[in-house]
Write a structure and sequence with these properties.
Distance between the termini: 118 Å
Strand content: 5-15%
Radius of gyration: 29 Å
Oligomer: single chain
Number of helices: 17
Helix content: 40-55%
Length: 386
């Protein structure tokens, strides 16, 4: 009986050894804990194909066109590394809600396993686009696993050695983005503000995500500096970040940016507010300097939208003039508010604002009445009829 058991044990051990040897040729475990089973031969094949894909300035004669498969094969690797980094997966209903709040001004494309989020405005309207190419800024919200990732070259994620062992590493920005956006990690936001600024700015500019003042500051300060130092200065173009038309042709105001200007306009800083003043004039201008090109606000918005924009800006500027002009007249050097000038040139604005119940702006009724009174007083001083 003992001899039989010994033979049985030896046979079983030999069987497992052979079985493991076969499996090792096709499936490799990364680590004993939280390991992944992968087809090494298939991974190598895809890595080789991706080397012939379009990327930035690299355009091979017969390019490999990545597909949904190239994204799906990434998902387990990214998911494992996120877990290791302490990412807490949200329940699906919470994750979907976060994605909806993130993608306010954007169109998405749904698949069974993921949703494509287009960060480039041209990409999301191009019907011939291959959204899986590596040189695009598209993000993919992965369902079930509930995280977000861009398309990555497979060889940047997995390194396979000659013995078919491998190591996995995803770029840290993927971890930081997910932990900030879905786990509310402020330390990861700190990292992103230093190391991933373009992505953060695209959240506001492309998706309309305007809930974080620190990101709003990053975008507005960077673009104001760039626009104001151009030759000629184009600082008024910053208004395009505040007011836009989305892909569903809806008028959108990024209230988080408005609040940032309101909260950060001081006696010694009216840069952004004065830039918005100039933008409000462009609503009724002829774009003679060709500053706006195809995004000319005079053509983008209808009369109600224009009046709404004027009201939003005036609701900040008029109280600020009262509060700060006497303290720092050299900085607050506009003779009157933009609302004053626009009401004189376009009196119909007043009727539109009133008809639309002051667009729900709390102080707008008072701001409008005070400005009209100011205009009337000046007319009396000049001996004009009104």
């Amino acid at each position: 009986m003992k001899t039989y058991n010994l033979l049985l044990f030896c046979f079983f051990t030999f069987f497992l050894s052979c079985k493991d040897k076969v499996n090792d040729e096709k499936i490799v475990n990364n680590q004993k804990k939280d390991s992944l089973n992968i087809d090494v031969a298939e991974i190598k094949k895809i890595i080789q194909l991706q080397k012939n894909a379009n990327y930035i300035d690299y355009r091979p004669d017969n390019p490999y066109l990545p597909t949904e498969k190239d994204l799906l094969i990434l998902i387990p690797f990214v998911e494992q590394e996120l877990k290791k980094a302490g990412y807490k997966t949200l329940p699906s209903n919470q994750f979907e809600s976060r994605i909806k709040n993130l993608v306010k001004d954007n169109k998405t494309k749904n698949y069974n396993s993921f949703t494509t989020i287009f960060l480039n405005k041209l990409d999301r309207t191009d019907k011939t686009l291959n959204e899986f190419e590596f040189d695009l800024n598209n993000q993919f919200a992965v369902k079930k696993y509930n995280f977000m990732t861009p398309m990555l070259f497979l060889e940047d994620v997995i390194k396979i050695k000659k013995d078919n062992s491998y190591s996995i590493s995803v770029p840290h920005y993927i971890i930081a983005r997910n932990k900030y956006l879905f786990n509310d990690s402020k330390s990861d936001l700190d990292w992103l503000l230093v190391n991933d600024q373009d992505f953060l700015k695209s959240l506001v500019n492309s998706l309309g995500y305007d809930k974080e003042p620190r990101i709003n500051k990053l975008l507005l300060e960077d673009y104001y500096k760039m626009l104001s130092t151009s030759k000629p200065s184009k600082k008024e173009k910053i208004g395009a970040f505040f007011f836009t038309i989305d892909l569903n042709n809806n008028f959108c105001i990024r209230q988080g940016l408005i609040d940032y200007v309101k909260n950060n306009t001081t006696v010694n800083d009216n840069r952004l507010l004065y830039a918005l003043d100039d933008y409000s004039y462009a609503l009724y201008g002829d774009n003679l300097n060709k500053i706006y090109g195809s995004d000319d606000p005079a053509k983008m918005f209808n009369d109600v939208d224009k009046a709404h924009i004027v009201a939003v800006i005036a609701s900040i500027e008029v109280p600020a003039i009262v509060k700060y002009k006497s303290e720092n007249p050299e900085l607050w050097n506009n003779v009157v508010s933009a609302l004053y000038n626009l009401l004189v040139a376009h009196p119909e604005i007043k009727d539109i604002i009133i008809k639309n119940n002051y667009f729900g702006i709390k102080n707008m009724k008072q701001v409008l009445e005070d400005t009209i009174d100011e205009i009337d007083v000046d007319k009396i001083k000049r001996g004009e009829d009104f």
